[in-house]
Design a protein that fits this description.
Blueprint: E1 13-16, H1 22-33, E2 37-42, H2 49-56, E3 62-66, H3 72-86, E4 91-94, H4 109-135, E5 140-145, H5 158-178, E6 183-190, H6 199-202, H7 205-212, H8 227-234, E7 245-248
Parallel strand pairs: 1-2, 1-4, 2-3, 4-5, 5-6, 6-7
Helix pairs in contact: 1-2, 1-8, 3-4, 4-5
Amino acid sequence: MTQRSLFDLTGRHAIVTGASRGLGLQMAEALARSGADLVVTARNIDSLAASCRHLETFGHRVIPLALDLRTQQSILDASAGAIAALGHIDVLVNNAGCNVRKPSIDISWDDWNLVLDTNLRGTFFMAREIAAHMMSRTSGRIINIGSVTSVFGYAGIVPYCASRGGVKQMTMALADEWGPLGITVNCLAPGWFRTAQNDIMYQDQAWLDYLIDRIPLRRPGRADDLDGAVVFLSSDASAYVTGQTLLVDGGITTGATRALPAKQSTL
């Protein structure tokens, strides 16, 4: 009998929220490539049609479900639906989120609630529902998606920074609480990746040059840069890893800057 690879997800069942496009779809693909059956969610189930057709090409089950993290009943329904569809859940990738880009002085009450209710409250209650199921099996992997803003602050996206910082702290608290029950909880924190939410910023070449100057690997993230990290945190390879924030950011959180060309450096 051949030994199972530490990174093999064959026979595992995973939920990826916010998987109709972008990084959520990419992470779902990484799990499917590694052998996992999937439930994928979006607020509008019709938006998952193309994603499901793509994911099914990897030869595993793919079930679409509607999920709006701002609504408790939607969370309850999606969680129950996922368990009913797959029988059990091994992995939750808590990816769905949103952002509002405004100067803080212009942030409304509703803007704040939209971002925090989705990214922080919704993430918690989705994790709680799936963890309750995982507890009965004394096994599970919960991956909360944070951001470089889990550890850095940026002007113009204060509610988002607050929500992602909260996800990091929440992850540590849940890891402490649920670790004795066999569940690991980690935060996967991408750096600057081009997505539909931030595409307008990448159209500004001056801003893009400014950004790249602060990334030691000298480029923004590509979608597949998250593949290894999400498979690692979903697999047996991370069995003794919990409560951690894994930054996949090209090194931007080193605080690197290049005020002088390399040839002028005195270092």
